[in-house]
Design goal:
The complex is a heterodimer of chains A (288) and B (244). Chain A has ten helices and 13 strands. By secondary structure, chain A is of the alpha/beta class. Chain A has two domains: 5-223, 3-Layer(aba) Sandwich (Rossmann fold), CATH 3.40.50.300; 233-272. Chain A has a six-stranded mixed sheet, with helices on both faces. In chain A, strand 11 (234-239) and strand 12 (245-250) form a beta hairpin. In chain A, helix 8 (224-231) crosses helix 10 (275-283). Chain B has one domain (2-241). Chain B has helices spanning 2-16, 18-40, 51-81, 86-91, 96-124, 133-156, 163-177, 189-197, 199-213, 219-241; strands at residues 45-46, 49-50. Chain B has a two-stranded antiparallel ribbon with strand order 1-2. In chain B, a hairpin with a 2-residue loop joins strand 1 and strand 2. Chain A binds chain B through residues 58-62, 77, 80-81, 83-84, 86, 88, 90, 92-99, 103, 107-108, 110-113, 153, and chain B through 2, 4-5, 8-9, 12-13, 16-17, 79, 83-85, 87-94, 240, 242-244.
Chain lengths: 288, 244
């Protein structure tokens, strides 16, 4: 399938991409475009195909079929020109544990053939609030610090596109908020960001576009607010006699209130619809 | 350049673990020297030399093999399976051929360092052996080819437990069969022919001939070079195989 002409203003183009591992289809005929400067959240439960999609875009995996393009160039393991413009924060820690925070960044700078890296590294360490820990070995940093160092490592080449695969997984609330600030800062720099997460509130807070993925298929891409509007901005949540929580969605508050008056339940609330409701409604599977 | 970047990082690793690396590099050959040299071979004469003079080139060959193989295979194995830092190379604009060369050279230098330690120990034991340019070259080629083998082996496996297969079925048999501790002359022709093809046999024999006779079969250098190139290419192929 050829890339459609209307996609030409897009920085990332995924066209009919399928990835199979034996009989298992991890990504199933996915087509998606991401515009320059877009902060796209890829939402899905574990095993939905989020990481596989990121790995395909970063050249870690080859698609079984379909085309992936970044800035008009087909992504492949040998496309150094594109790789120079990417920053990748994988799901797991990819730091050299024996090296210090500073040395990890020097190593990354050398791999990207950056010559004058001293000031750049100082700036990154400061942005990530790691200056005090620059001489600490990566293995001795806390989980949150390691994550921030990974983000610094991904930014060493001042990338145009940043892929973040669950960057806050396993991080406490304070650590997560710090990372959110960094991601918001990256957004202000105009970087194109693809974030995978199964923390729905994270996507709601950070992303200007959200994409729902499950069982390797993409359901829909839109803004978080549009998703909520389409579903109904008011949610009625009630616990029924079969010990099951039910959700109903309404466009107007009056409709929700009218509905509540007819519900027989010991616990019934009207609240604003969240992105988690949207996701739950799409997949009928609660994200943890 | 990727080669120097990797060597820089490995040098930091070496500096930080200098004491541990040095003591572990000394331990095994020291035990061999005590057991086979002092203990067993004090009064034994083989090929016109004392057993100590006979066995030291074999122990150097063995140590360069083991040290280079382990140095690189453990590092790559950990970075691939546990630290996941190997994937960083795959998403970075690095030349895999140069990256592999950097890692292999780092492993080879560790092998050379270990061989230097054995020579030092053997001097402390009062054994002085003849060393020339070819002796150093053969040690380096042996270190390089087994570092390359370790690089390919570490990338070819999917579990740390699989690494022991290489040790059990390749490294350990070679350690004992390739003329490190005994002369291959008395082996049956068929067995001798098979063992004679293996790289460690060429290294052991060449080093021993240099030490005891001052000359050696130069074709061994070609054999070691061929093994080096083949294992290096295998390592590169294994690097690319990481992109699935």
């Amino acid at each position: 399938m050829l890339i459609n002409k209307r996609w030409s203003d897009c920085l990332i183009e995924i066209d009919g991409v399928t990835k199979k591992f034996g009989d298992f289809t991890a990504v199933d005929n996915v087509s998606l475009t991401i515009k320059k400067g877009e902060f796209l959240g890829l939402l899905g439960p574990n095993g939905a195909g989020k990481s596989t999609l990121i790995n395909l875009l970063t050249g870690l995996l080859k698609p079984t079929s379909g085309i992936l393009k970044i800035d008009g160039q087909v992504m492949s393991r040998n496309n150094m020109k594109i790789k120079k413009r990417l920053g990748v924060v994988p799901q797991y820690t990819n730091l050299d544990k024996e090296l210090t925070a500073y040395e990890n960044l020097v190593f990354a700078a050398k791999l990207f053939k950056i010559k004058d890296y001293e000031d750049l590294i100082d700036e990154l360490l400061e942005t990530m609030e790691l200056e005090e820990h620059r001489e600490k070995k990566a293995m001795n940093l806390s989980g949150g610090m390691q994550r921030r160092l990974m983000i610094a490592k991904a930014l060493i080449n001042d990338p145009d596109v940043v892929f973040l695969d669950e960057p806050t997984v396993g991080i406490d609330l304070n650590g997560r908020r710090k990372i959110w600030d960094i991601l918001k800062y990256m957004k202000t720099l105009g970087k194109t960001i693809l974030l995978t997460t199964h923390y729905i509130e994270e996507a709601d807070y950070l992303c200007n576009q959200v994409c729902l993925i499950n069982e390797g298929k993409i359901f829909k891409k839109d803004t978080p607010d549009r998703f909520k509007e389409d579903l109904g901005i008011y949610t009625v949540e009630y616990f029924d006699s079969e010990m099951k929580t039910n959700y109903s969605y309404f466009k107007k508050k009056e409709e929700a209130e009218k509905y509540v008056s007819n519900v027989e339940s010991i616990s019934c609330t009207i609240r604003k619809t969240t992105l988690e409701d949207v996701f739950y409604n799409f997949t009928n599977r609660k994200v943890v | 350049m990727e080669v120097f970047t990797v060597l820089w990082r490995e040098f930091i690793f070496f500096k930080r673990r200098f004491f541990k690396i040095t003591t572990s590099a000394i331990m095994t050959p020291l035990l061999y020297l005590i057991a086979f040299g002092w203990g067993l071979g004090k009064d034994i004469v083989i090929e016109g030399a004392t057993y100590m003079h006979f066995v030291i080139p074999g122990i150097i060959a063995l140590t360069t093999m083991n040290t280079s193989f382990n140095a690189i295979s453990v590092r790559i194995n950990i970075s691939k399976l546990y630290e996941k830092s190997f994937e960083y190379y795959l998403t970075s604009p690095v030349n895999m051929k140069l990256l592999a060369l950097g890692h292999i050279l780092a492993g080879a230098f560790r092998g050379m360092y270990a061989s230097g330690l054995i020579l030092l120990i053997s001097y402390l034991f009062g054994i002085k052996i003849r060393i020339n340019f070819y002796f150093v070259l053969i040690c380096f080629l042996n270190s390089f080819l087994f570092a390359a083998f370790g690089y390919g082996a570490a990338l070819s496996i999917e579990s740390h437990y699989d690494m022991s297969r290489f040790t059990t079925y390749v490294m350990t048999p070679m350690s004992f069969l390739c003329g490190t501790f005994f002369s291959l002359k008395n082996l049956p022709p068929l067995v001798k022919g098979v063992i004679g093809v293996l790289p460690l046999s060429h290294t052991s024999q060449s080093l021993r001939d240099i030490v005891l006779k001052g000359q050696f079969d130069h074709r061994s250098i070609l054999v070691l070079l061929i093994y080096s190139v083949v294992f290096y290419l295998w390592g590169i192929a294994m690097s690319y195989r990481e992109v699935k």
